[in-house]
Write a structure and sequence with these properties.
Layout: H1 2-43, E1 45-50, E2 55-57, E3 70-74, E4 81-82, H2 85-99, E5 111-114, E6 121-126, E7 129-137, E8 142-147, E9 162-165, E10 179-181, E11 185-188, E12 197-202, E13 205-211, H3 215-220, E14 229-238, H4 241-252, H5 257-263, H6 265-287, E15 295-299, H7 304-320, E16 326-332, H8 338-351, E17 354-359, H9 363-371, H10 380-397, E18 402-405, E19 422-424, E20 431-434, H11 442-451, H12 477-486, H13 488-504, H14 509-513, H15 524-533, H16 544-548, E21 550-554, E22 559-561, E23 566-573, H17 580-587, E24 592-596, E25 601-606, E26 609-614, E27 618-623, H18 629-644, H19 650-654, E28 660-663, E29 668-671, H20 681-684, H21 687-690, H22 692-695, E30 696-699
Parallel strand pairs: 9-12, 15-16, 15-18, 16-17, 18-20, 21-30
Antiparallel strand pairs: 1-2, 1-3, 4-5, 5-6, 6-7, 7-8, 9-11, 10-14, 12-13, 13-14, 19-20, 21-23, 22-23, 23-27, 24-25, 25-26, 26-27, 28-29
Length: 700
């Protein structure tokens, strides 16, 4: 009996502890949920709008009328910007084409807010209302509109895509989300296609919805039942005389970006002062150093952000020293727009600033058929055409290092969202980058450019959101289509290369024209698009050599050898066309190497492991341990570097021991084994190792 009672007591204790634990976990989960909700609440992006002046407001008050602005909620990341002149023309053409009216855009401040989507996707904001979404359809390769409730009042005078319904529908209660039956349709307008947005009129109410049938289907298919739902209401608003008068009043309030500057002048001065003080502090601290004084530079791409960063730096240094102490550093990748190169040169001459150009020359062409078409997940071109030449320039021009003023902003991308006030460049030794406008949005950048009367790159007027290489795989499909219109010769040049690769890889032309070349591994949105277009994406735009893939295989299981009391591990690698001497050189970064050219074998000693690498592709490793994965991976990567080294020189500048150099007479990497400490710094910036999973099949 005593034993039974003891067991019951233990069971109850366990049960109580379990209940207590479950309650604790519930509270923890609840706290985490509340924390997530609070963080989401804090992450909500907004912008102010003065209804009286009809202008966007960035501060707490409109500085023209002193009114407190109303708040507009923006979809994240909230990097709202002004529509370019060409962007406004595009909007006008779309509204005219789809609804037969666009006059409400005349003379208005139009904002675009970039939001997630398949390609370019922007919320459209006018008069403080989100009226719709502009997006680029990769299936049709054309721009489309997606209406929002805020856009309904502007389409009172719409002439196309009109559907009139019985007035009694408006008196039947909740309308939004309701399906409209065929029997309730009075007029189904011309030019409507399936899944088009349509304007719905019922009495004094106006709405918009999504058509489930085209005009021809509606009028010709007699099988459509009167009870069949032919469209669904997505949004409505009442249109009375008061609302119409308000719309007309707002139409009369035509505004310019200069008036927007007036309404935000104090705010702009405030953010300028904060950014200037950050740079001024860094400049003064650097100037007080007797030794190792660093050169101040601006990373100048010719884009809007680097333009503003340069203006901030000029004002900071102008108060504390001579602006001639400021150098502009521009990277000519060999793939730049001609307008960008001209703008950079003209700007430097006009401002009297020293311009240093890091030139990639023909590095892209030299490596194109080695690495293949660059993609979002294999951007080898950035390492070869940007990082390599700028590392070489800094090593030559700024041996004591430099402080670079950079225009990166947090809202540009998820990668940049975590940048701080400054950071040390992990790939360029002794370079410190400052980000004075990291918290700014695009609208603040453009208002500041207008406020200071700065000349900017003319490509922005052609509706380019970003300025970079004309064929960058990170650009949107809409941007590459824009290249087709503004620079047809550059577009044709790159398309010819893409189509040549497509032919060699037996890939369809549609794979190229619809933008699938921008990925090696297609994301879900592109896989769905491929299914709709019936395009085979199982292959990529790779050369024949890459399609096969370089092959390195090492059997890490090994077998025990009693004679030597060691484990024997064997493997092989692809050696066709391989200069084995280059592999031997890179093996020096792994361990101590002895090489016999006559026997065609390199012996590497490292961490209790002896590896024999043969010129015929065989690998033999003796190890004190059964598993030696880390060491085997290092051997495999050294072989791959020897195979694919581009001689970019990043490792030369990264080596703190000066153990690596490029022999100009031989055009080969040389490593001083006596100086090399095998710290791995040379691997951190190596383009081959960064993308090795896309370049070779390494099995260990």
């Amino acid at each position: 009996m005593l034993f039974y009672n003891l067991m019951v007591w233990v069971k109850n204790m366990v049960k109580n502890k379990k209940n207590s634990y479950n309650k604790f976990k519930y509270k923890e989960r609840n706290r985490e949920r509340i924390k997530r909700e609070e963080s989401r609440e804090e992450a909500k992006e907004t912008i102010g709008w003065c209804k009286e002046c009809n202008l966007p407001i960035l501060g707490s008050r409109c500085e023209i009328c002193n009114n407190i602005p109303s708040e507009i909620k923006l979809s994240p990341p909230g990097d709202v910007r002004f529509a370019s002149r060409k962007g406004k023309r595009l909007l006008a053409e779309l509204f005219s084409r789809e609804f037969g009216v666009s006059s409400f855009l005349d003379g208005k401040i139009v904002l675009f807010n970039k939001i997630p989507g398949q390609d370019r996707t922007d919320e459209i904001i006018i008069d403080g209302n989100v009226i719709g979404v502009l997006f680029f359809d990769l299936e049709e390769m054309d721009y489309r509109l997606d209406l929002r409730e805020g856009g309904i009042p502007y389409l009172v005078d719409a002439k196309r895509r009109i559907v009139e319904c019985n007035e009694r529908i408006a008196s039947q209660g909740h309308i939004k989300g309701r399906g409209i039956k065929k029997k309730d349709i009075v007029l189904f307008g011309d030019g409507i296609k399936r899944n088009d947005d349509v304007i719905i009129k019922f009495g004094t109410w106006l709405g918009f919805g999504r058509a489930r049938y085209s005009t021809s289907d509606f009028s010709e298919i007699s099988e459509i039942s009167d009870e069949e739902i032919v469209l669904r209401v997505r949004g409505i608003c009442g249109i009375d005389d008061k609302r119409i008068d308000e719309i007309k009043r707002r139409k009369m309030k035509k505004r310019t970006i200069h008036e927007c500057v007036r309404a935000n002048i104090g705010y702009l001065k405030g953010i300028e002062e904060k950014a200037v003080n950050e740079i001024k502090d860094a400049f003064v601290k650097n100037a007080n150093k007797d030794k190792n004084k660093k050169q101040f530079t601006v990373s100048f791409s010719g884009g809007k952000d680097s333009l503003v960063a340069c203006e901030i730096a000029k004002r900071a240094i102008g108060d504390s020293g001579d602006k001639k102490e400021l150098h502009l550093v521009y990277i000519d990748t060999g793939l730049e727009f001609p307008e960008t190169k001209k703008f950079v040169e003209d700007y430097a001459n006009k401002e009297g600033l020293c311009l240093k150009v890091a030139r990639a020359n023909d590095a892209f062409e030299k490596n194109l058929y080695k690495f293949g078409i660059p993609s979002k997940d294999l951007r080898w071109c950035c390492k070869v055409c940007k990082l390599a030449p700028v590392s070489e320039l800094f090593a030559k021009e700024y041996p004591n290092g430099c402080i670079s003023i950079d225009g990166k902003r947090k809202r540009e991308s998820f990668v940049r969202a975590k940048i701080g006030k400054f950071e040390n460049n992990p790939f360029v030794p002794n370079q410190i980058s400052y980000y004075p406008i990291r918290e700014w949005r695009a609208i603040e950048v453009w208002l500041y450019i207008t406020y200071r009367g700065l000349d900017y790159n003319p490509l922005y007027d052609e509706d380019y959101e970003r300025i970079g290489c004309y064929m960058c795989p990170a650009e949107l499909g809409s941007e590459f289509e824009n290249v087709k219109n503004t620079h047809p010769e550059l577009y044709r040049k790159w398309m010819d290369i893409l189509l040549d690769f497509a032919k060699k890889a037996s890939v369809s032309e549609g794979y190229v024209t619809h933008g699938f070349w921008r990925w090696r591994r297609q994301p879900p949105k592109m896989r769905e698009l491929a299914d709709r277009l019936s395009i085979d994406i199982s292959k990529t735009l790779s050369s024949a050599k890459q399609e096969r893939g370089k092959f390195i295989e090492i059997n890490n299981l090994g077998r025990y050898c009693e004679a030597s009391n060691n484990w024997l591990i064997e493997g092989k690698f692809e050696c066709e066309g391989l200069a084995f001497e280059r592999v031997v050189e890179f093996l020096k970064t792994v361990g101590y190497v002895r090489y016999s050219e006559d026997l065609g074998v390199a012996i590497v000693d490292m961490n209790g492991i002896r590896a024999k690498i043969f010129a015929n592709g065989d690998i033999s490793v003796t190890s004190e341990r059964k598993l030696a994965r880390k060491e085997l991976e290092e051997i495999a990567k050294a072989i791959l570097k020897g195979e694919m080294c581009t001689l970019c020189g990043i490792c030369v500048n990264a080596c703190v021991k000066n153990a690596i150099k490029i022999a100009q007479d031989k055009g080969e990497i040389q490593i001083d084994e006596g100086k090399c400490s095998r710290c791995g710094k040379c691997d951190e910036g190596c383009v081959v190792l960064k993308y090795h999973s896309n370049l070779a099949k390494i099995e260990i």
